[in-house]
Design a protein that fits this description.
213 residues; alpha/beta; Nucleotidyltransferase, domain 5; 2 domains; four-stranded mixed sheet; 38% helix; extended
């Protein structure tokens, strides 16, 4: 995977001296011009007096948050927290309009977010040929504004999963602008029976009786 990416710089975070041994063993095989061991780097940064002052802390005060602390913070988020974060994106989108738009175009698609390591729910995706997450992004088609994004495992969503996201998005938009029309656009993967049925029930327009792509 590293050789296929053909990087100019490779950062290796395995802690010292394990990372140095790994670099020495594989640097010729990988052919990367520059390899850098960055393990335990955070432990040096947390006590750096300049960084402390940049964070409005005393230079001789308590250490800054370390990498393990940040990891614990990230893993402390619950499913409810993640759902509320996705809702915040939607609230920001709605509040970005001084006046209601003429109509809303929902452009929906997923993309691969490559992972490196053993992150939970990172799966191998044969189409993208890597281990990744597959977040769903929804943008407003006319303005290009982000409506929301949802982090997902590295596989394409089912029709029911697509609809569960659209229900929340459409519900919020209809609360703000109940009279405005909505058009859904997506590639052929999103042209599935569950999505068609949802569009019919919610009177969401499609192009030529199909999801416009």
């Amino acid at each position: 995977m590293i050789k296929n990416a053909n990087p100019d710089i490779l950062s290796v975070a395995l802690s010292a001296p394990k990372q140095e041994k790994w670099i020495y063993r594989y640097y010729k095989e990988l052919g990367v011009p520059v390899s850098i061991g960055i393990g335990v780097t955070f432990e040096f940064y947390v006590n750096d007096p300049v960084l402390k002052m940049a964070c409005e802390r005393l230079p001789d005060g308590e250490p800054l948050a370390s990498q393990p602390t940040i990891s614990r913070f990230e893993n402390a988020l619950s499913r409810t927290d993640l759902y509320r974060i996705a809702e915040v994106f939607l609230d920001i989108f709605i509040e970005s309009y001084d006046e209601p738009p003429e109509a809303i175009i929902l452009d929906i698609d997923d993309t691969d977010d490559a992972t490196h390591g053993h992150q939970q729910l990172a799966l191998f995706n044969a189409f993208h040929n890597n281990y990744c997450y597959m977040p769903i992004h929804i943008y407003e088609g006319k303005s290009g504004k982000l409506i929301t994004t949802v982090l997902r495992p590295g596989k394409r969503p089912t029709g029911e999963q697509i609809v569960s996201i659209l229900k929340r998005v459409v519900g919020k938009i209809r609360e703000a602008w109940p009279e405005k029309g909505i058009l859904l656009r997506g590639d052929s993967y999103y042209s599935c029976p569950a999505v068609y049925e949802f569009c019919d029930e919610e009177e969401i327009k499609t192009q030529n009786n199909k999801i416009y792509s």
